[in-house]
Write a structure and sequence with these properties.
Length: 348
């Protein structure tokens, strides 16, 4: 063992998850992380993401990425600081975004790493509005939904990382935007973001009627982060030639097919000439730079606002993950794992 070995805690998958996650599905272990080899660097985690979509990989079955195995470090996007480097393009103190998961220290190669330059937004924004959720919002609205001015865009999980930014981008296209969120605090924030209407699905007895009330001219674009009964209720309210964009299905992750809600209102596809399209944001990887530049401009101009729900300490990651499925996050759910050795950015 080298003298420069560092201790690191890591959170691993302890058992396969069927249904909603609980903190007991994970285990924290402490391991030794050796010095980096040739072409590698050693990184210290500052923030790690908490992604509901990861649940689709935790039941032992394949998603669009391979399933995780028992004992694997929980997958996540990460922003961290280079501790030591044996790669010519990285130096100690550099800030990088990668995907080394829920751990304090890791040895990684350069593939998939992106250096982050200090800027006016906090570093954590690299995992939120400038990370996968922000990029998902950007492409789902601009490339798939393509709302026209005056059309109604309905967004589920509108107080979440993807939904909140997507709704604001749709507003920038001149659309009328309606959000669906759970609870008064989330609805109030979604209204503050400039959504034209917000409906609290937890307070509505009849979701189909509630969508009809808030979208009287029909839904031109439905950006769905939820699936299940909410998707079905939206289908019944789609306007002629409406587009359903499937970003996520949080009600269906970890649920066996026979227990899923299913779609009951498919005739609407024919009567109203609808389209429904799913997508994976990584399909647009060659345009991430363009999207980040637009998001960064909108944030600096105050046209796109965002919030982060930051849980403290690596040990809080499993309960933060379980909390997302109970709607405990307002904005992007993240875990703060460490602090940078210098202060690279102004606090939010
Ligand atoms: N296609 C892609 O490439 C891609 C990329 C990234 C993310 N995604 C997907 O985008 C979706 C949003 O991700 P995110 O990171 O922005 O998560 P998020 O919206 O910030 O958090 C999840 C939210 O889902 C809502 N929710 C949970 N259970 C629900 C239920 N039973 N019914 C209705 N709402 C429920 C909760 O909000 P309420 O309190 O309002 O219910 C919760 O806060 C996820 O489904 C994710 O998998 C897709």
């Amino acid at each position: 063992m080298s003298d420069s070995t560092l201790k690191s805690r890591q959170v691993v998958l302890a058992r396969y998850i069927h249904g909603h996650p609980s903190p007991e599905d994970f285990r924290t272990e402490t391991i030794d992380i050796p010095a980096p080899g040739d072409g590698q660097l050693r990184v210290r985690t500052l923030y790690a993401s908490v992604d509901p979509g990861a649940l689709a990989r935790l039941g032992g079955e394949a998603s669009y990425v391979p399933p995780m195995a028992l004992g694997d470090v929980m997958a996540s996007a990460v922003v961290g600081e280079v501790v030591d480097s044996r790669h010519e393009q990285f130096s100690p103190g550099d800030l990088v975004v990668g995907s080394w998961g829920w751990c304090e220290v890791a040895v990684v190669g350069p593939k998939g790493l992106r250096k982050v330059e200090p800027g006016p937004e906090p570093l954590s924004a690299e995992l939120g509005v400038f990370g996968i959720p922000g990029l998902t919002s950007y492409f789902s609205i601009l490339e798939l939904g393509k709302p026209r001015a005056g059309e109604t865009v309905l967004v589920s999980s509108a107080a979440g990382a993807v939904g909140s930014v997507a709704g604001q981008i749709a507003k920038l296209q001149g659309a009328r935007v309606v959000g669906i969120a759970g609870g008064p605090a989330k609805c109030a924030w979604v209204r503050e973001l400039g959504f034209d209407e917000v409906l609290d699905y937890r307070a509505e007895k009849d979701l189909t009627a509630a969508i009809q009330r808030t979208c009287p001219e029909g839904v031109g674009v439905y950006l769905d982060n939820v699936g299940g009964a909410m998707l079905d209720a939206a289908l019944l309210n789609m306007a002629l030639r409406g587009r359903v964009v499937l970003s996520g299905l949080i009600t269906e992750y970890g649920v066996p097919p026979e227990q899923r809600h299913g779609l009951k209102h498919t005739p609407r596809f024919i009567t109203h000439r609808l389209r429904m399209e799913g997508f994976v944001v990584f399909d647009y990887a060659d345009r991430f730079r363009e999207a980040r530049a637009a998001l960064s401009r909108w944030v600096s101009e105050g046209k796109v606002k965002y919030r982060e729900h930051v849980a403290e300490g690596l040990e809080s990651a499993p309960s933060a993950f379980a909390g997302v499925f109970r709607g405990e996050n307002l904005g992007r759910m993240l875990v703060r794992v460490g602090s940078p050795s210098r202060t690279p950015r102004a606090p939010s």
